[in-house]
Amino acid sequence: MPYDLQPVASHFVNGRYVEDISGASMPVIYPATGEIIAQVHEATPAIIEDALTSARAAQKAWAAMSGTERGRILRRAADMIRERNRDLSILESHDTGKPLSETLYVDATSGADALEYFGGLAGALTGEHIPLGEDWVYTRREPLGLCVGIGAWNYPTQIACWKGAPALACGNAMVFKPSETTPLCALKVAEILHEAGLPAGLYNVIQGGGAVGGALVGDARVDKVSLTGSVPTGRKVYAAAAEGIKHVTMELGGKSPLVIFEDADLDNAVGGAILGNFYSSGQVCSNGTRVFVHRTIKEAFLERLSARLAQAVIGDPLDEATNFGPMVSERQMQIVQGYIETGQAEGARLVTGGARLDRPGFYLEPTVFADVSDGMAIAREEIFGPVMAVLDFEDEDEVIARANATEFGLSAGVFTRDLARAHRVIGQLEAGSCFINSYNDAPVEAPFGGAKMSGVGRENSKAAIEHYSQLKSVYVRMGNVEAPF
Ligand code: NDP
């Protein structure tokens, strides 16, 4: 039985659903039809206060439990998410418009992976013993306290879990604010965590836009802020967090290079470029949207790419045959349409796509521009939609320099059969999450995050533990204290 699209209430605070209809109404729009499918209310100051107070109150007792006990609850939640994967995926498809053929495999399942992984690690979090003659220092790995998570709209379940799982594993409490565009999925994550045994107050979800996010970030009781969003928002949130010297994780935007050398397996390279540009209708932060193709294979690449794109099944996200859905919102669609117009005005060659589909909902065709030059807006700015820019190159040093000539540094990919070249090039690309003969894999075991303006900190993997805990070092003297007077 799929979940009701209308949530029980707008917020999940202190272990239960709560409502406060005095908060501004936020309609939830199904991107495939443009219809309103649910209504939630923005968090009022009273809801924000309840979330922060209950998180603060619950955190100490949670941190005092053993890591194994904490981890058991997270792993139970992971199992429950997997059991309910289909229902959660249907909800995710309504929240985002992404096709079920994606959400069944990468959203709730990736959230479950994070809960399972960090649940497993929780019992293994320790400090170290540092011998100093007869004295010694020991370190304690302690939680940060109260963490705020703020999410983007492209992966609402995954982001809620990628932030919540390591935070809870380390003994923190979390207040999570989803994007106002996709408010539904994080509520289910909170519900399931509590059903799995999470004590009340440790994972709260409150709705709202930037103002609610800003109120959370600015609160003196908050110790850490983890944002997934754009660079402009990241700048604001980072600055606000700096006022309170808070810890931050910033998972921000990108304009990542995908370099395809002349010796690449062309079908694999085309497949990588498709995954890195058109999955989730191009609404993926790590996408390789600047596709540098060696001049000698460019036309062959474009021909095969166009043939494969012609096979995209665009349509109803709930039909499992569909593999390309709508944009998340009318606004995002308009932003992307603006870039398509700009690309044409700048003189790029429109190889395929470019149009809005003549049907309800926010559908754009998968779009490819060739003959793109480095200075064009479509090669410099994050579009966050299904628009690939293909640029030609001649040699390795040139393409490395051009690939790095951006303020962003989230991801990078290389396709070549020459593995020495692959490692040499990847070693010089300025990006946090890189791929050789692949694109956009994000296993929980691997660190994920950006260099340069694309972010600070890492999610997933053991690296995330560093960003949700702090070390206390304790010097222990065994002998007498020798003071100068
Ligand atoms: P935004 O930057 O617009 O928003 C991100 C979140 O921040 C939203 O919840 C938003 O609220 C909130 N917010 C906005 N202003 C403030 C503020 N002043 N204080 C606190 N919170 C605020 O990003 P989008 O939601 O449009 O998502 C797309 C962006 O996210 C792209 O740039 C993409 O690259 C990036 N992204 C990065 C990822 C990564 O891991 N590196 C992964 C996924 C996306 P609201 O929108 O509800 O008003």
Strand content range: 15-25%
Proportion of residues in helical segments: 25-40%
Mean pLDDT: 98
Structural class: alpha/beta
What is the tally of helical segments? Answer: 16
Brief summary:
By secondary structure, the chain is of the alpha/beta class. The protein is built from 16 helices and 20 strands. NADPH dihydro-nicotinamide-adenine-dinucleotide phosphate (NDP) binds at residues 150-154, 177, 179-180, 209-210, 213-214, 217, 227-230, 233, 236-237, 251-254, 285, 382, 384, 410, 450, 455.
Topology (elements, then pairings):
Layout: E1 11-13, E2 16-18, E3 25-30, E4 35-41, H1 45-64, H2 67-83, H3 85-96, H4 100-106, H5 108-122, E5 129-132, E6 135-143, E7 146-150, H6 156-169, E8 173-177, H7 185-195, E9 203-205, H8 210-217, E10 224-228, H9 231-243, E11 247-251, E12 257-260, H10 266-278, E13 290-294, H11 298-309, H12 330-345, E14 349-352, E15 367-370, H13 377-380, E16 387-393, H14 396-404, E17 411-415, H15 419-428, E18 433-436, E19 455-456, H16 463-467, E20 469-476
Parallel strand pairs: 7-8, 7-10, 8-9, 10-11, 12-13, 12-17, 13-16, 15-16, 17-18
Antiparallel strand pairs: 1-2, 3-4, 5-6, 6-20, 11-19, 14-15
Helix pairs in contact: 2-5, 2-7, 3-4, 4-5, 5-6, 6-7, 10-11
NADPH dihydro-nicotinamide-adenine-dinucleotide phosphate (NDP) binds at residues 150-154, 177, 179-180, 209-210, 213-214, 217, 227-230, 233, 236-237, 251-254, 285, 382, 384, 410, 450, 455.
Descriptive account of the structure:
- The chain is α/β, with parallel strands linked by helices.
- Helix content is 38%, strand content 20%.
- It is built from 16 helices and 20 strands.
- The strands form five sheets. Strands 14-15-16-13-12-17-18 form a seven-stranded mixed sheet, sandwiched between helices. A six-stranded mixed sheet has the order 9-8-7-10-11-19, with helices on both faces. Strands 5-6-20 form a three-stranded antiparallel sheet.
- Helix 15 links the parallel strand 17 (411-415) and strand 18 (433-436).
- The chain is globular and about 75 Å long.
- The mean pLDDT is 98.
- Bound molecules: NADPH dihydro-nicotinamide-adenine-dinucleotide phosphate.
- Residues 150-154, 177, 179-180, 209-210, 213-214, 217, 227-230, 233, 236-237, 251-254, 285, 382, 384, 410, 450, 455 line the site of NADPH dihydro-nicotinamide-adenine-dinucleotide phosphate.
